[in-house]
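Ticket #4471: structure output looks truncated?

Reporter: J.K.
Steps to reproduce: submitted the chain below (161 residues) through the standard prediction queue, then opened the result file.
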Amino acid sequence: MKVIEYEEKYAEDVKNLLEELQNYILSIDPYHFNILMDDYKEKIFEKDMEEVRKNHGKIYLAQDQTNIVGLIMGVIREPEIDFDYERQKNMGEVLELIVTNQTRSKGIGSALLNKMEEYFKSQNCHTINIDVFGYNEIGKNFYFKNGYHTRMMTVSKKIQD
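Returned output as attached by the reporter:
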């Protein structure tokens, strides 16, 4: 397995991975709020690619001998002052980290995360944020194992069917 930088020729592989992640989220969403529209992978691909282009982003892919088996997308959020805190340095944000179901638990996710962390360090980021779906215990455990911790949390309660 090797980690390579994204090229246009891998667009369909990326779209398929994005759809695989959404299907996984659908399978663990007890509220069934998440959906998979017919054009989901096209729309999410466009949205993510725009974020990467506008925000000094990078996409890295994990490739085995013949297939793309994982991806990570990250962007850099520039310093800002909000009404309740001041961030004086760049912040890295991982938009997507996906490893195909068939190749999980083989170090691919860690290799991709390490590559993105190297990029963020080279861009003088001091922090990395990653949003994780609350019911994604596998994802949360992966990030905790890699030194991340919960800083913010959204809590939800369904009050009507």
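Triage note (M.O.): checked the attachment and the full token line is present. The helical segments are 11-28, 40-54, 108-122, 137-145.
Status: closed, working as intended.
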